[in-house]
Amino acid sequence: MRILVIGGGAREHALCRSFSLDPDVTALHCAPGNAGTAEIATSHAVDALDGAAVAGLAQEVAADLVVVGPEAPLVAGVADAVRARGIPVFGPSAEAAQLEGSKAFAKDVMAAAGVPTARSYVCTEPAQIDEALDAFGPPYVVKDDGLAAGKGVVVTPDVEEARAHALACERVVIEEFLDGPEVSLFAVTDGETVVPLQPAQDFKRAYDGDEGPNTGGMGAYSPLPWADPKLVDEIEQTVLQPTVDELRRRGTPFSGLLYAGLAITSRGVRVIEFNARFGDPETQAVLARLKTPLAGLLHAAATGQLAEFPPLRWSDGAAVTVVVAAHGYPAAPRTGDPIEGLAEVAEQDAPKAYVLHAGTKLDERERVVSAGGRVLSVTATGSDLGKARERAYAAVGRVRLDGSHHRTDIARKAAEDAGDAGDAAGDH
Ligand code: AMP
Ligand code: GLY
């Protein structure tokens, strides 16, 4: 199978890595890619938002499957443009991608499908904003309606901060605060059949102890030793399947990756948000444990054959991903800094720990330099979370990037609560 991956973040590097290990994959292309994907896939310079250009490239490389990684091309209709040429695509249509592209649309679908989520108001006028903030009280949850790369959401006890963010948005969703731990659950779907992957947890805030601003995600781990073993079945039945059924009923079936961001509250599971693509950094941790070859799974989804697909196989143990972010991320990331230590990780830590590139590129001297806010992520596997953490952080310690920062507490509480030793004993 010849595969073209669209995008250039750590998620796309993780997808490319899984494809590169899949015996069914005979050719791997990535556009635009990054310095990491370039090591395992052929890079192509293409505007990922230009459907005609992506479809043309897919034809040129005779792709059997195109996988669209990020949300912006999906919302722009890139999957539709490729599908129109008869090439199987993993990724929803522009209409179905509105599930991520518009929070108001997602709320409407959930209401129609009976999917549990936070109560909310959609506001466009200052008077409505004040009314909604008053109705819920603190802590306030204020969300820009459109795509904002994970940065359009403000959760704050400060009513003035909440109001200021709401007034800065053209259309804003103000909603009830949900307490309880967050879970990210991904499902592969062909618009009818839903195949959930294993759950993960993301760390959205920039600094240790969940301090600082919201980010695209600073780390993740999977599975969740603290979660009820029936949680995935429950989410499939109450959230994923009804949402997929509702979109099909509307004549806009959702085929691709349905990502449910959930809060496990004292009153049960509630959807925080949907995304229309693999999450970053959760994908790095989830795919690290998927034993079923990825190409066949995504091709089955793209061609409407998931009902016949055999059950997924997972490796035992755990995976942890730690994001290394640029100086100044998320407010004002600095780019162009050289990254060192990557060869040391490849020599000393692989294959159980490895670097997945996100915002990187090769400069004119062929050095790997930073080119984005989340620069790279280190993913490690282990027999338990403690062991996976230890390996991930050992590798993070070898990566040198001036001014960079990372969280030191990814999966720490979960590992401690599970009683993982987290020392070097055993598991070699
Ligand atoms: P979103 O972009 O909708 O995923 O929101 C980003 C982050 O804001 C989430 O991962 C949560 O940590 C937080 N958040 C969003 N909505 C709520 C809510 N209703 N209650 C509590 N926290 C929320
Ligand atoms: N990790 C959050 C996201 O991918 O949106």
Mind explaining what this structure looks like?
- By secondary structure, this protein is of the alpha+beta class.
- It folds into four domains: 2-90, Rossmann fold (3-Layer(aba) Sandwich); 119-175, ATP-grasp fold, A domain (Dna Ligase, domain 1); 180-308, D-amino Acid Aminotransferase, Chain A, domain 1 (2-Layer Sandwich), CATH 3.30.470.20; 318-417, Glycinamide Ribonucleotide Synthetase, Chain A, domain 4 (Alpha-Beta Complex), CATH 3.90.600.10.
- 31% of the residues lie in helices and 26% in strands.
- Strands 3-2-1-4-5 form a five-stranded parallel β-sheet.
- Strand 21 and strand 22 form a beta hairpin.
- Helix 5 (94-101) crosses helix 6 (103-113) and helix 7 (126-136) runs antiparallel to helix 8.
- The longest helix has 19 residues, at 231-249.
- The protein is globular, with a radius of gyration of 21 Å.
- 52% of the residues are buried.
- The structure holds adenosine monophosphate and glycine (GLY).
Q: What helical percentage do the residues reach? A: 25-40%
Q: Which regions have little confidence, pLDDT < 50, spanning 5+ residues?
A: 424-428
Number of distinct helices = 14
Radius of gyration: 21 Å
The top level CATH class name of the largest domain: Alpha Beta
CATH topology of the largest domain: D-amino Acid Aminotransferase, Chain A, domain 1
Q: Trace the largest sheet across and list its strands.
A: 3-2-1-4-5
Total strands: the figure is 24
Structural class, from helix and strand content? alpha+beta
**Shape category:** globular
Please summarize the sheet with the most strands. 5 strands, parallel
